[in-house]
UniProtKB/TrEMBL annotation, chain A:
Subcellular locations according to the entry: Endoplasmic reticulum membrane
GO BP term, example: protein folding in endoplasmic reticulum
Domain ER membrane protein complex subunit 1 C-terminal: 780-985
Family: Belongs to the EMC1 family.
Gene name linked to the record: EMC1
Protein's name in the database: ER membrane protein complex subunit 1
Membrane topology: Single-pass type I membrane protein
Residues of the EMC1 first beta-propeller domain: 37-437
Keywords: Disulfide bond, Endoplasmic reticulum, Glycoprotein, Membrane, Signal, Transmembrane, Transmembrane helix
Domain of life, per lineage: Eukaryota
Main subcellular location: endoplasmic reticulum
Coiled-coil blocks: none
From TrEMBL, chain B:
Source lineage: Eukaryota, Metazoa, Chordata, Craniata, Vertebrata
GO cellular component: EMC complex
Keywords: Endoplasmic reticulum, Membrane, Signal, Transmembrane, Transmembrane helix
The UniProt record lists the keyword RNA-binding: no
Protein's recorded name: ER membrane protein complex subunit 10
Range of residues in the leader sequence: 1-29
Summary of subunit composition and partner proteins: Component of the ER membrane protein complex (EMC).
Xref: PANTHER family: CHROMATIN COMPLEXES SUBUNIT BAP18-RELATED, ER MEMBRANE PROTEIN COMPLEX SUBUNIT 10
The family this protein is said to belong to: Belongs to the EMC10 family.
Keyword Kinase attributed: no
Any single Pfam family the record assigns to this protein: ECM10
Topology of this chain in the membrane: Single-pass type I membrane protein
Location within or outside the cell: Endoplasmic reticulum membrane
């Protein structure tokens, strides 16, 4: 059918004359023709990437001048990055290992050096902040990290001290070499928690024996010798880290929530020191009930002692600025801030200021600067921080203070909110940029069609059922005419716009996408991406430009919650708005809540939600729709009772009628139990099948059904002898993947079970010996592709399973799981894959005519578009006439990775976690979103753009040829007539 | 559901005590052998129970005994009794009341076929079902499949009838519903294939040998130079003309 052919591929797109191509063509001999690569001028045209860093743990500004542009953050995603503070763009970013191995314990900044302790005290790193290069890296001794600080010798910072559980070490800033390391005395009993250096010849280590005493050890900077060792009675003290700071000339200041008192202690005192107590009551201060008071101090320069002013937080929104008097044990209150959410110190030159954020009104917070010495407010320093309606509350404040030309203090401020967003504000309250760092952890997403434009919607409304009933014949005709006129108008306007834009250079044409101008394009290529993040913030992102159109922060979402996003009503049911439902399940209690919203505008719908008092086990979306065209969502609780949402009378009636044909399954992987249920008329359920995989042998790691919006165009495959091999297309089929509990390389295995979700029948059961997870798999059409680690050959392998009914269909009209007595034929083949993978998904198109590709996310950040053709168990080992006729590629054990198959060329997506595919209005085109740390959106054309004219299509040539032919016909017709007439006269 | 006569519910509760005649269905890894009870008793037997109620409550009763033999060649056979008069009626009612969509369920206890030392029986059952109407319409000819995992535990059971459809045809003859016509198979997991490297290398070697022959060593260029050279020349010439501003020479051809 498809004979092998010569395929000429041009490596570079060119619309210039053919002649120029002479040097550029490559003739490739192959049976198939796939060209995936983007052309140079198409970069960024159909795709975009956004890079994120995650929730900020530490943030520093470069230097205290007005012109400095850099800021540095270290995040919970083990990332150290630098932003341009003018634009919020990423200057550079270092992505470390995930998990505790790469976690950043502390980030210290001094001059050009950024010091970082990584992996619970495993490594000490120094970065050059200008270019983000690594200066040096030192491996630290074992022991968990406690604290670190800079140490100055004679006014210059030369060393960094790292305190571990049982040792203190000093390293040179210049090269990371260790100056000395000393074991801490009695480290089993004493918990060493803080290290302090105020520019003297000693470095102090503070340790505590909880509720007994405090230990202070002074080490000589020179050789690490213990100069002094003191033990101070402190029965009230449980942790230095959480309740003590150093202020002034080396005075340890602690707060005790039990006695409501402050304790001071001079660290450097020669004689046996003692804590002196100052009751908070004596300062007229009162702690909010149940609140643990917090002390905040500031050490502007490591070579000098800390400020004698400090903040004491007495309640969630109550802070006091206090000053330690020169005598070292009396305290003077400077200013009381109530209400005040956040406070922060900032130093520029010799001046230190305190920034305080206070609530102003519903929509904004005010930030003011105060002089630290006097507590007076500095004039003209108010900055407004806008609070978003559905945003998070402010969580942290980072102030960048600088001296202006007139020697007054100016500042910019970075506010971190609970939803992990970073907002950078400049005086007098202009938001310079906002970074939505919640998007670094997308959990699940959906793509929703955009609504029609006003005119299109009007047209839809005209043919709506309700309209037809209300109006008579004549008004209908009038309506029809008027809508035709509006359509004509819209078309003319569109033409004018096209003409107008064509005259402008391409770069200038930039349509700002706003929520008001959103409308579906001709081929439905632009969609709304609804993204759910782990922090509980929802985003609506325009798929074409990547701009965030709406965001909604859900408060009170547990950090370990599981999310499931369901599209209950699409945009197709005008005038009913589209409706999405987010099922949020607390993993500990299993209790679930629903958040129903409009995916286009992000607004919460005011629909009565069902009460869900019991833990939810399973949710399923039925094809049943209520009178408002919303699909019915069934929620099964732990007593196997079913709740329907929406639960109108109409829905309940429909459910009763259909009850006996509604089946669902539950999987309890901890018990290895798969069971099936059938709905009863009273919305209770009946257990009808049960399959148990003993957990002693194997554990269920993943279960996948098929995507409900998947279409399969061809029912079978035409074979070489012109017969048809019919696919086994069971929509209820589940692929269950297990891993053996025995992890010995020789005995480990991966099990693949294909189970019918209605009848519980095990359709196929295969065991991949000497294999281990993590298993990634895709289940679609009549095939399952899975990837595993071969423990014997120590390599990654791909295996493909395809199911066929055979050359005859059992019942070609309808598929029923209850009436398919014969098991399908199963074909399987395995290949070596030369790379580990992180995630896998299959392309999806509107009608399923286009051939399928697998999108494979690689750890390198590349996304590989692997033709499914390569994963075909019918690839023959020996090429025959039939297999050639069928266009089958001969079997090769190794799967190739071709760089032109990387759909994201050099735009690597760090830590790909998931790939989402959605069909577009064009059959050839599939929309792809890869998410992880970054988000990358593009389009793929698995069978090339067979339904689209190329960008460089020569309209002029084709129309001139047409016109020429037309005129030639006219002229020759005329000539022929003349000739005929002449002949007739003869 | 409320329309179901109560008497039938009662009938279904009465256990079948009378085992009139034993009917054996037996198999050896899928093949029907026909030798019933006279095989050696090194195996063990587990009950096969069934339930066919018109209401949705399952009440399992004995249908027969599965004779399982583990070891290298796992085999299974089934001895089962005929259906009693009452059971036949219940089944038929289940079919007649089509709206109820009565289910015929079977279950077997979870057992291990190989591990004899440890406790064979674990708690819990494996359950499967088929529509009662299709069982009646197929005149009790069913196919029961037992699935085991790699270590010989029974993990699942399935039942289908042939034919599987419910067409609503009336089963006239009571005799058709007396005895089961059961095909019994036991399926162990298949081993998924490994990458076929050896065969591929062999094939490559053969191809290399073939290619080693001198007459086939002609390169692509050597074979097709007569087509390529004029093409290249033509393109180069037309390119030269183009550069010298002679677009006219190309005319409409382009």
């Amino acid at each position: 059918m498809y004979p092998p052919s010569l395929v000429v591929t041009f490596t570079k797109k060119s619309s210039v004359k053919m002649a120029k191509l002479t040097s550029l063509f490559v003739i490739s001999l192959s049976f198939f023709c796939i060209s995936e690569a983007v052309f140079e001028d198409q970069v960024g045209k159909f795709d975009w990437r956004q890079q994120y860093v995650g929730k900020t743990l530490f943030a520093h500004f470069e230097s205290n001048t007005q012109s400095s542009k850099k800021m540095f953050v270290a995040t919970d995603k083990n990332i150290f990055a630098s932003f341009n503070s003018r634009t919020g763009d990423l200057l550079w970013r270092h992505v470390d290992k995930t998990g505790p191995e790469g976690s950043i314990d502390i980030l210290l900044l001094h001059g050009q050096d950024a010091l970082m302790v990584v992996g619970d005290g495993r490594l000490l790193r120094s970065w050059d902040t200008n270019i983000g290069g690594l200066n040096w890296e030192a491996v630290l001794d074992t022991g968990s990290f406690q604290a670190a600080c800079f140490v100055a010798i004679q006014d210059t910072v030369k060393l960094v001290a790292v305190l571990k559980k049982a040792a203190l070490s000093l390293h040179y800033l210049s090269n990371g070499h260790q100056k000395w390391v000393e074991n801490l005395p009695d480290s089993d009993a004493v918990q060493y928690q803080a290290v302090y250096s105020g520019g003297e010849e000693e470095v102090y280590v503070l340790g505590v024996v909880p509720n007994s005493h405090l230990t202070i050890i002074a080490y000589s900077l020179e050789d690490g010798e213990i100069i002094k060792q003191r033990s101070v009675e402190a029965s009230w003290l449980s942790s230095v880290e959480s309740s003590c700071v150093v202020v002034g000339q080396g005075v340890l200041m602690c707060v005790d929530p039990a006695t409501l008192a402050l304790y001071t202690l001079p660290i450097q005192a020669e004689e046996t020191p003692e804590f002196s107590q100052i009751l908070l009551q004596s300062l007229d201060l009162e702690v909010s009930p149940g609140f643990q008071p917090v002390l905040v101090s500031s050490q502007p320069h490591p070579a000098r002692s800390p400020l004698s002013e400090f903040f004491l937080q007495l309640g969630p929104d109550h802070h006091v600025l206090l000053q330690l008097n020169a005598d070292g044990y009396t305290i003077a209150p400077l200013r009381d801030f109530q209400p005040a959410f956040l406070v922060s110190f900032a130093t520029t030159g010799k001046k230190t200021v305190a920034a305080v954020m206070t609530p102003k009104n519903e929509t904004a917070c005010a930030i003011n600067l105060f002089s630290v010495d006097s507590g007076r407010r500095l004039l003209d320093t108010t900055v407004l921080f806008p609070l978003e309606l559905n945003g998070g509350k402010p969580h942290a404040l980072y102030v960048h203070a600088f001296l202006k030309k007139d020697d007054s203090v100016g500042y910019r401020v970075l506010v971190q909110t609970q939803d992990h967003a970073l907002t950078f504000i400049q005086q007098p309250g202009r938001v310079v940029w906002t970074r939505e760092e919640a998007l670094a952890d997308v959990v699940t997403m959906e793509m929703v069609d955009l609504p029609l434009t006003g005119t299109q919607a009007e047209l839809e409304g005209e043919f709506g059922k309700k309209a037809a009933i209300q109006d008579g014949l004549f008004p209908m005709v009038l309506k029809r005419l008027s809508s035709q006129v509006t359509l004509l108008q819209a078309w003319l306007a569109h033409l004018w716009k096209l003409f107008y834009e064509a005259r402008k250079p391409r770069g200038q044409v930039k349509n700002e996408v706003t929520i008001e101008t959103l409308s579906r394009d001709e081929f439905n290529l632009q969609k709304m991406m609804v993204m759910v993040t782990a922090s509980g913030k929802l985003f609506g992102i325009d798929s074409k430009s990547g701009s965030i159109l709406w965001k909604h922060y859900l408060e009170n979402v547990q950090p370990n919650a599981a999310f499931k996003l369901i599209v209950q009503r699409t945009t197709a049911h005008f005038p009913h708005p589209p409706q999405c439902t987010l099922l949020i399940k607390d993993k500990d209690t299993g209790l679930a809540t629903l958040h129903v919203f409009n995916p286009i505008f992000g607004r919460k719908s005011h629909i009565a939600l069902p009460a869900l008092p019991r833990p939810i086990l399973q949710s399923l979306l039925l094809p049943v729709i209520d009178q408002d065209y919303a699909k019915v969502l069934l929620l099964v609780d732990d007593q196997y009772k079913v709740t329907a949402f929406p639960s109108t009378k109409n829905v309940l009636q429909q459910l009763q009628e259909m009850a006996s044909s509604i089946f669902f399954y539950l999987i309890r992987s901890d018990q290895g139990n798969l069971s099936g249920f059938r709905l009863r008329k009273d919305l209770s359920t009946e257990r009808i099948w049960e399959v148990v995989l003993p957990t002693e042998v194997q554990k269920i790691v993943a279960v996948k059904g098929k995507r409900p919006n998947e279409h399969v165009h061809s029912q079978g495959r035409v074979m070489g002898d012109r017969s048809v091999l019919y696919k086994y297309l069971n929509p209820n089929l589940l692929a269950v993947v297990t891993e053996s509990t025995d992890t010995h390389p020789e005995r480990a295995f991966v099990g693949v079970f294909l189970v019918d979700g209605v009848t519980g029948r095990i359709i196929h059961e295969a065991v991949q010996r000497k294999a281990r997870g993590p298993v990634h798999f895709v289940h679609s059409e009549n095939w399952v592709v899975y990837e595993y680690w071969n423990t014997k050959s120590r390599r990654n392998e791909f295996s493909v399973l395809e199911l066929f009914e055979g050359t005859e269909l059992y019942n070609s009209t309808v598929f029923s799981s209850l009436d398919r007595p014969h098991l399908p034929q199963v074909l399987q083949q395995t290949y070596i894959f030369p790379s580990p993978i992180t995630t896998m998904e299959a392309t999806l198109t509107e009608k399923g005519i286009t051939s399928r590709h697998l999108l494979v996310g690689l750890p390198s950040g590349a996304i590989l578009s692997l033709p499914k053709m390569f994963l075909d168990p019918r690839r023959p080992e020996v090429v025959t006439e039939h297999s050639r006729e069928e266009n089958l590629i001969p079997y090769a054990p190794e799967m190739p990775i071709r760089t032109e198959w990387f759909i994201n060329y050099n735009q690597t997506v760090a830590r790909v976690k998931g790939i989402y595919t959605a069909p577009s209005g064009l059959e050839s085109t599939c929309l792809v979103v890869a998410y992880g740390l970054d988000i990358y959106q593009t389009r793929v054309y698995p069978s090339k753009q067979f339904d689209v004219l190329k960008d460089d299509y020569d309209y002029v040539l084709i129309s001139s040829v047409l016109f020429a032919l037309f005129f030639a016909t006219m002229i020759s017709k005329r000539l022929a007539q003349v000739k005929l007439l002449n002949r007739a006269w003869r | 559901m409320a329309s179901v006569p109560r008497s039938f519910l009662l009938l279904s509760i009465i256990p079948t005590i009378l085992i009139l005649c034993a009917d054996f269905a037996c198999c050896n890894t899928g093949r029907k052998t026909g030798d019933g009870l006279d095989t050696d008793f090194s195996g063990f037997s587990v009950p096969l129970e069934h339930s066919f109620q018109v209401d949705d409550v399952s009440r399992f009763r004995m249908r027969g005994a599965l004779q399982l033999r583990g070891g290298r060649e796992t085999s299974v056979s089934l001895s089962q009794s005929q259906l009693s008069e009452e059971d036949r009626n219940t089944l038929k009612v289940g079919e007649e009341v089509a709206a109820v969509d009565g289910l015929y369920k079977i279950r077997v206890p979870r057992v291990s076929l190989t591990d004899r030392q440890t406790e064979r029986q674990m708690d819990g059952y494996l359950t499967a079902f088929v529509r009662a109407c299709s069982l009646v319409e197929s005149h009790l000819s069913d196919v029961i499949t037992l699935h085991t995992d790699v270590s010989g535990y029974l993990i699942g059971v399935s039942i289908v009838t042939i034919p599987g459809a419910c067409r609503g045809t009336e089963v006239e003859d009571e005799v058709d519903l007396e005895a089961f016509n059961t095909t019994l198979t036991i399926i162990a997991p298949t081993n998924a294939p490994q990458p076929e490297t050896a065969l591929f290398i062999e094939r490559m070697d053969i191809e290399h040998e073939k290619r080693g022959k001198p007459q086939e060593q002609k390169s692509f260029f050597a074979k097709y130079w007569m087509y390529i050279v004029p093409l290249v020349l033509f393109l180069m010439m037309s390119g030269a003309q183009d550069q010298s501003g002679g677009g006219a020479a190309n005319g409409g051809g382009r």
